[in-house]
Amino acid sequence: MPQWMEWLHENSFALLIITLGVTFLILLLMVILFYRFKKISKMYKNLMTGQEGNSKNLEELLFQNLENNENIIQKLKEQEVEINQLKNISLETIRHIGIVRYNAFDNVGSNQSFSVALLDHKGSGVILSSLYGREVSQVYAKPVKESRSSYPLTEEEEKAIQEAMSE
Questions:
Q1: Which InterPro entries does the annotation name (predicted)?
Q2: What is the DSSP letter of 154?
Q3: pTM above the 0.85 mark?
Q4: Digit-coded pLDDT (tens) for 20-42
Q5: Strand order across the beta sheet in which 137-144 lies
Q6: How far apart are CA 93 and CA 85, in angstroms?
């Protein structure tokens, strides 16, 4: 009898035990895999047919999501139009303000006179000047276009325009 056959014959019980152990491990792994597969199959079925208590399946959820996305895109377009309208409005509003206080007359203190420039982004708007005196106060308004006026401007009014446009 060949040598390897003798070795098999002498160790046949040990080989049988090892074979049974490996078979048992394979069987145990198959049982574990079976239960995992069953769990995954149940999850897949719930996903495709709708979960318990929720009748929506994956297809319905996807279509609902697409519809929601279309609604969101429509709202974004509407908001973009509104933002552009607000931008156009803001171009015409007062953005720059400059204030210069001063003494218009020698006998009056505390810088009670002032010039206020109220201008848009192009430097157009109005300049208001108040001249305060002990007996009389006077207020003047002059139109401003592109940081210039068709009326003569005082030094303080020029400073107010410069201050407003430097913001």
A1: DUF4446
A2: -
A3: no
A4: 999 999 999 999 999 999 999 98
A5: 96-102, 113-119, 125-132, 137-144
A6: 13
